[in-house]
Amino acid sequence: MSEKVEKKQNALWENIKVIIQALLLAMVIRTVFFQPFTIPSGSMMPTLLVGDYIFVNKFAYGYSKYSLPFSPDLFSGRIFSSEPKRGDIVVFRFPPNPQIDYIKRLVGLPGDHIQVKEGILYINGQAVPRVPDGTFTSDYRLDPGEDVPVYRETLDDGVTYDTLDQSPNSRADNTREFIVPEGHYFMMGDNRDNSLDSRFDVGFVPAENLVGRASIIFFSLGNDTSFREFWKWPANMRWDRLFKVVE
To answer: How far is CA 208 from CA 21, 26, 77, 185, 212, in A?
Structure first.
């Protein structure tokens, strides 16, 4: 074998090793630390918009089988776990079908009594204070939401955020009382009249189903612009949302 051929083979092998190492590093980061997530619907408007791309902090609550690629059944429950806080925006696996990721705001902790009456959220019998905070118009084609009333809620731990109240008499505005079981959580979307959440078929979310806490918006495209349509990025980029902390 000539010296030239041997050098080419060595260079090729070095390149392959670099690629393998980069892939392994990316897998470790995605599995252990941060996972990218795309907002697929308007259920978290106005906090999160369709076309937002966020990083999910996976070590915020520890790890379950759903923290790993393909969700292998290696262990049950969570390891290195820490409790989520009321008001966190959480990515979790849909309990009836854990193949699907959902994102909602955690409003109910284990043992809490949760109810919505005339559009007002009640936690343990106490109404969550809310005040008008302007209006919201969406650039999302399937949920235009023109001049929808916005209300700012403030939880007892000081977490505050905006919610939408598109209809004063929707089926989401009056619910039965839910008592959150041990080891489970109650989730609601900020777009209160357009969110399938724990009030409906999502139900109570087991702790094992938590994937992580939404942390930061790293990219955002409006007007139903696909990520692949890069030539449309300059006109449709939501520049004011880039690197915005999710609250």
So the answer is: 30, 24, 5, 11, 11
